[in-house]
Amino acid sequence: MLTQPSVDVLLGLQWGDEGKGKIVDVLCKSYDVVARFQGGPNAGHTLVFEGKKHVLHTIPSGIFHQHVLNIIGNGVVIDPIILKKELDALTARQVNFKSNLFISKRAHLILPTHRLLDAASESAKGQHKIGSTLKGIGPTYMDKTGRNGLRVGDICEPDFKAKYQQLLEKHKTLLGFYNYPCEITEAEREWFDAIDYIKNLQICDTEWLLHDAVKNKKRILAEGAQGSLLDIEFGSYPFVTSSNTLCAGACSGLGIAPRQINKVLGIFKAYCTRVGSGPFPTELLDATGEHIRAQGNEFGSTTGRARRTGWLDIPALKYAVMINGVTELMMMKADVLNTLSELKVCTAYHSAQGTSDRLPYTLDAAIEPVYTTLTGWNQDVSHCKKWSDLPEALLHYIAFIEQAVGVPINLVSLGPDRAQTLFK
Ligand code: GDP
Ligand code: IMO
Ligand code: MG
Fold first, then answer.
1. What pLDDT digit, counting tens, does each position of 83-117 carry?
2. Which of 58, 169, 303, 380 has the most C-beta neighbours closer than 10 Å?
3. Nearest-CA neighbor of 206 among 116, 72, 359, 99?
4. CA of 249 to the centre of ligand 2 (A)
5. Is the pTM value of this prediction over 0.90?
6. Within 10 Å of residue 376's Cβ, how many Cβ atoms?
7. Is the link from the previous residue into 238 a cis peptide, with omega within 30 of 0?
């Protein structure tokens, strides 16, 4: 039986940290289910409301809404230690997750040795390192696709310890290859304690839960992590993460059919940031870049690292819109540009092959951004309460992007708080 598509997908269109967590939380009043479909504790999704800040890594950003079912899907990789810490933090804030959090049996587990392997691989790469979050993401997805991984559903099986031991032995061999020390006694104890804790949560075949929700006409929001330019297929490879961050990843990472997808909500910052290594054509290594970092508080929610900053990159944005089939855009952090009198926007790249607005195969130093300069709004917009309060220069900035990308911007975010959000 065909049903109306009832799954909307919310994605970051840049290099992550666009403000996905904030918007999922803001949109929750319109949804019954929020489901994370990929990534793991490399993500840091920040929510600010009632004067408090919450950072979520593994848990979907709908957790503060009692009416919302929160699903950690099969495409996610879970570090039990980090998940337990997140849940402890929620308990301390009297957030009840006992009835509205579900974890897929098929989600893979991050072992303490996956973290060591991540560190070993990064250190072996030296100055060519990815700049990973060191959460064990790459090695865990490698074991998943290499068909060696441990899954959440395994933890209640009688042979779980034996399976763990088998994978541990493999990891020890690999760490030996890297000549990297394998000291995990304490981490292993903490990991097994966390596994025992997780056994008490609602672990199930979440694909059925989602299909029942679809059948019952529930509204579902799939919450992306990272961003399109960090996607394993279409990101700035090899400086990417190890999962499918795109809209298509919501299907494989949750077990929903492509025809169930309705809106694709694409989130981008009014400028660009990137954390970790890799090409960044519009990067600003000057006082303006420093100013944006300070105004935007551009320091990683997961690792605390300073984020690199730069001007908005329209060819990259158009590419992300194309491969995701974005139906509407949401522009974040406009307030960060409040005091800049001139704003540059990259509209094309110049290279030996000529000028093009198509993202090339490699984003290296051989391409040069072509900029258009727009007038800044030069005023504090963080207190604007409705779309018509927005200054002319900001409305022009929005219209310029809409025209260049060909998709409407229906939301603008003017500060970290839930309330600082305007819908068109
Ligand atoms: P996510 O990973 O996409 O959820 O984004 P992060 O939480 O890692 O990073 C976004 C940061 O910007 C967080 O510190 C948010 O609190 C903050 N933020 C979100 N929207 C806005 C906004 O419109 N203006 C400002 N100034 N900060 C924002
Ligand atoms: P959210 O969901 C920004 C980056 C890392 C590194 C690369 C690979 O908060 O937007 P990994 O640990 O995944 O192997 O690191 O990807 N990265 C992120 N950057 N936001 C994120 O998540 C990120 N998750 C990973 O910095 O460059
Ligand atoms: Mg983040």
1. 999 999 999 999 999 999 999 999 999 999 999 99
2. 58
3. 72
4. 16
5. yes
6. 17
7. yes
